[in-house]
Amino acid sequence: MDKQVEILSKEIVYQGFFRMEKYRLRHTLFGGGWSAEITRELFMRGSCVAVLLYDPYADKVVLIEQFRTGAILNPDRAWLVEIVAGAIEDGESAEEVAYRESLEEAGCEIQQLMVINEFYTTPGAFSEWITLYCGKVDSTHVGGIHGLDHEGEDILVRAVDFDETYRMLENGEIESAISIIAIQWLALNRQKLKRQWGG
Prior knowledge:
Elements: E1 5-15, E2 19-27, E3 38-44, E4 47-55, E5 60-67, E6 79-82, E7 84-87, H1 94-106, E8 112-120, E9 129-136, E10 144-146, E11 155-161, H2 162-170, H3 177-197
Parallel strand pairs: 4-9
Antiparallel strand pairs: 1-2, 2-3, 4-5, 4-7, 5-6, 5-11, 8-9, 10-11
């Protein structure tokens, strides 16, 4: 199959904190020929970074908790337990953002950094592309409230034993997809990571 997309028109339908674009398009079909014209809205999120901060010596994961607008329809669960994440700004590399966001959101200095994977989060409607990292940290003095005031961030930070972190995941206390992916990856790779990073 010769995979092709023809964009017939594009317009910006909303520009605020985020941007929404509207496309008229058609694409080739697996069975041959072209689809009918379709209209789709695309939420322009851009490229982002998420970092699973892990202390292999203490066997602890650094978790953050903050209010999330996306969960507002369940207001009693709108404060989500997550891992560090942030958007890549113009002129920044994904790796630079990993180091910056870890300091801003969790007060953690990354000692070593490795890529876990890269993926789309919600490709049916969002352009967001995530680079997911694991960062080695010392969790000895981790904790407190972090974030940037001018960005309206109010982030509770704690270091949690891996076993407790995984129990939280299994009990549905961690509901953010990127965090779930990262913790499940750690469950599969923890012993190898400890050998590689010590601990």
